C-alpha cells in the first residue's frame, strides 16, 4: 500500500499570506456601460472630467449672505440686511451679492458670487425687503462648494475597487458613461464522489446522496463575482477525474472541486493533479476545523481549489479562502471581509494549534452583539441555516469562556469599502467638507 504523507498543512495565517501574495495572471479589461458595472472591479483609476458639483450651492432653504456680516447676530441683536432678489432652481443668480445684502436661495440653488454662507429660513424674519438675521453663520456654512465631490482631473476612484451602487451613483454624477473593468474570473465547480447524484434526483437508492456542495459553491462563487460553470458530478475514477479536470482547466481560471481531498484510498485529487497535470501544490491541508483537508494547486496559470467533501466544511472553506482567491483573480486591490466583535453566549472549545470556526447566530442586545453558537457536525448543513457568521477561535487559543469576545466574520458577501484616492479639499471647502450638517 502506498504510504500517504498525511498533509502538507499550513496555518490559517499562512494560507491568508499565501493568497495575498500569490502571483495571478493579469486580466482582460473591458469597457462596460456604467449601470452594468455594479459588482465589477475597476481596472484603471477614474479621473473626474469636470468639477462636481459644477457650482456652489445651498444645503438649506435660506438666505445667501456674507458670513462675516452676521457675526454677533443673536435673538436680541439681529443683523439687518437688504433682500435683493431670489435664486431660482437651475438658474444663475443674475447678480453679485454686495455688502449689506442677502438673496433668497432654495436648497440646491446656486450661491451668488460674493456670498459665502447661507442662513436657514428658521433663523431669519422677513419684513418687506428687509431681513432680520437672528443667528450668525460662519464662512462655508450651509454651502456645498464647487468641486467638493470631485475636482476636474483628480483621480476619484482607484483601480482594484469593486464597484458598489454608491460608486456607480457617484460616477453617474460625474457624467461617466462607461467604465474599464476586469473580465470576471471563470470558475468551474465539480463535485466528486460515487455516492453523489444531481440534487434534482427524486428517489434516492440507499447509499446515494444529493449533491449539495455544487449548489452552495456555485451560488457563492457567483455572488463573489465569478462567472460560474456548474460542471456536474465526477465519479471516483482516475481517468474520469483527469478528463473532467483537464476539460475544466481549458477555459477556467479556477477549478473548484469538492470531495476526494482526504487521505482515504479513494481520494484521488492530489495524485491526479500531481501525476497527470504536473500541478504545483501549495498545500494539502489547513490547520482549521471544519475543513482541514483543503488543497490549493496551480496548473500553468490556472488554479485548482480542492474543498473537503463534508458540506459544511466545503462551504466554510470556500467562504474563508475561496472568495479570497476569487478576489485576487478578479483583480481586487484588497481582500478584507467584514468581521465584528461579539460576546459569546456559551463557551467554545478548541485545540491549540488549530483555528476553529463555529457557526453563530448574532443577537443585538443593549450592551452590543452576542454570538449564539449553532453546534453540529461538519457533515450536516443545518448549522448554516439561520447562522449570521463564523466565530473564529484562533490557533493560539484553547477556547473561549462564555461572555468572552470573539471575532465573527459575517456570512455574506460584504467587504470593507476601499477608500478612494481623493485629495483633501482646500480653503472653505476643507473646513466644511468633513462636517455633517
Ligand atoms: N482517517 C481520516 N478520515 C477522515 C479525515 C482524517 O483526517 N482522517 N478527515 C475527515 C474530514 S475532516 C473530512 S472534511 C472528510 C473529507 O473527505 P473528502 O474531502 O475526501 O470528502 P468525501 O470523502 O468525498 O466526502 C465526505 C462526506 O461528504 C459528503 N459529500 C461529498 N461531496 C458532497 C457533495 N457534493 N454534496 C453533498 N455531500 C457531499 C460525502 O457523501 C461524505 O459523506 O474526511 C474525513 N475523514
Ligand atoms: O475538516 Mo472536516 O472538513 O471537519 O469536516
From TrEMBL:
It catalyses: adenylyl-molybdopterin + molybdate = Mo-molybdopterin + AMP + H(+). Its EC number is 2.10.1.1. GO terms for biological process: Mo-molybdopterin cofactor biosynthetic process. Gene3D superfamilies: MoaB/Mog-like domain (3.40.980.10), MoeA, C-terminal, domain IV (2.40.340.10), Molybdopterin biosynthesis moea protein, domain 2 (3.90.105.10), Molybdopterin biosynthesis moea protein, domain 3 (2.170.190.11). The keyword Transferase applies. Keywords: Magnesium, Metal-binding, Molybdenum, Molybdenum cofactor biosynthesis, Transferase. InterPro entries: MoaB/Mog-like_dom_sf, MoaB/Mog_dom, MoeA-like, MoeA_C_domain_IV, MoeA_C_domain_IV_sf, MoeA_linker/N, MoeA_linker/N_sf. It is an enzyme of class 2 (transferase). Pfam families: MoCF_biosynth, MoeA_C, MoeA_N. One of its GO terms (cellular component) is cytosol. GO terms for molecular function: metal ion binding; molybdopterin molybdotransferase activity. Residues 188-328 form the MoaB/Mog domain. SMART domains: MoCF_biosynth (SM00852). The keyword Zinc-finger does not apply. CDD domains: MoeA (cd00887). Its cofactor is Mg(2+). Pathway: Cofactor biosynthesis; molybdopterin biosynthesis. Catalyzes the insertion of molybdate into adenylated molybdopterin with the concomitant release of AMP. Belongs to the MoeA family. This is Molybdopterin molybdenumtransferase. It comes from Brockia lithotrophica.
Amino acid at each position: 500500500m502506498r504510504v500517504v504523507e498525511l498533509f502538507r498543512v499550513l496555518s490559517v495565517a499562512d494560507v491568508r499570506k499565501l493568497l495575498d501574495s500569490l502571483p495571478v495572471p493579469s486580466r482582460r479589461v473591458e469597457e462596460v456601460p456604467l449601470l452594468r458595472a455594479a459588482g465589477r472591479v475597476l481596472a484603471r483609476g477614474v479621473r473626474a472630467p469636470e468639477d462636481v458639483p459644477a457650482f456652489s450651492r445651498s444645503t438649506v432653504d435660506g438666505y445667501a449672505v456674507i458670513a462675516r456680516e452676521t457675526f454677533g447676530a443673536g435673538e436680541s441683536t439681529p443683523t439687518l440686511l437688504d433682500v435683493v432678489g431670489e435664486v431660482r432652481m437651475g438658474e444663475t443668480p443674475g447678480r453679485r451679492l454686495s455688502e449689506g445684502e442677502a438673496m433668497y436661495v432654495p436648497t440646491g440653488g446656486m450661491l451668488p458670487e460674493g456670498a459665502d454662507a447661507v442662513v436657514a429660513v428658521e433663523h431669519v424674519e422677513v419684513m418687506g425687503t428687509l431681513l432680520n438675521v437672528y443667528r450668525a453663520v460662519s464662512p462655508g456654512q450651509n454651502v456645498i462648494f464647487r468641486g467638493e465631490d470631485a475636482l476636474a482631473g483628480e483621480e476619484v476612484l482607484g483601480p482594484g475597487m469593486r464597484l458598489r451602487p454608491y460608486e456607480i451613483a457617484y460616477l453617474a454624477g460625474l457624467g461617466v458613461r462607461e467604465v474599464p473593468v476586469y473580465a470576471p474570473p471563470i470558475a468551474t465547480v465539480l463535485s466528486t464522489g460515487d455516492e453523489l447524484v444531481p440534487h434534482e434526483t427524486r428517489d434516492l437508492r440507499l447509499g446515494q446522496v444529493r449533491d449539495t456542495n455544487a449548489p452552495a459553491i456555485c451560488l457563492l462563487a457567483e455572488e463573489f463575482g465569478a462567472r460560474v460553470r456548474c460542471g456536474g458530478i465526477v465519479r471516483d475514477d482516475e481517468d474520469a477525474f483527469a478528463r473532467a479536470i483537464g476539460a475544466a482547466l481549458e477555459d477556467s481560471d479556477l477549478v473548484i472541486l469538492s470531495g476526494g481531498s482526504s487521505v482515504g484510498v479513494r481520494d484521488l485529487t492530489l495524485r491526479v493533479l500531481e501525476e497527470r497535470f504536473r500541478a504545483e501544490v501549495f498545500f494539502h491541508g489547513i490547520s482549521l476545523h471544519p475543513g482541514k483537508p483543503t488543497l490549493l494547486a496551480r496548473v500553468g496559470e490556472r488554479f485548482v481549489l480542492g474543498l473537503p467533501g463534508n458540506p459544511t466544511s466545503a462551504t466554510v472553506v470556500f467562504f474563508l479562502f475561496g472568495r479570497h482567491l476569487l478576489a485576487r483573480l478578479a483583480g481586487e486591490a484588497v481582500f478584507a471581509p467584514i468581521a465584528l466583535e461579539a460576546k459569546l453566549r456559551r463557551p467554545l472549545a478548541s485545540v491549540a494549534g488549530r483555528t476553529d470556526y463555529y457557526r453563530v447566530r448574532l443577537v443585538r442586545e443593549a450592551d452590543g452583539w452576542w454570538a449564539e453558537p449553532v453546534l453540529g457536525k461538519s457533515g450536516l448543513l443545518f448549522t448554516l441555516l439561520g447562522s449570521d457568521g463564523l466565530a473564529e477561535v484562533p490557533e493560539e487559543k484553547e477556547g473561549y469562556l462564555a461572555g468572552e469576545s470573539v471575532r465573527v466574520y459575517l456570512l455574506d458577501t460584504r467587504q470593507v469599502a476601499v477608500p478612494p484616492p481623493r485629495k483633501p479639499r482646500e480653503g472653505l471647502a476643507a473646513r466644511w467638507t468633513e462636517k455633517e450638517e
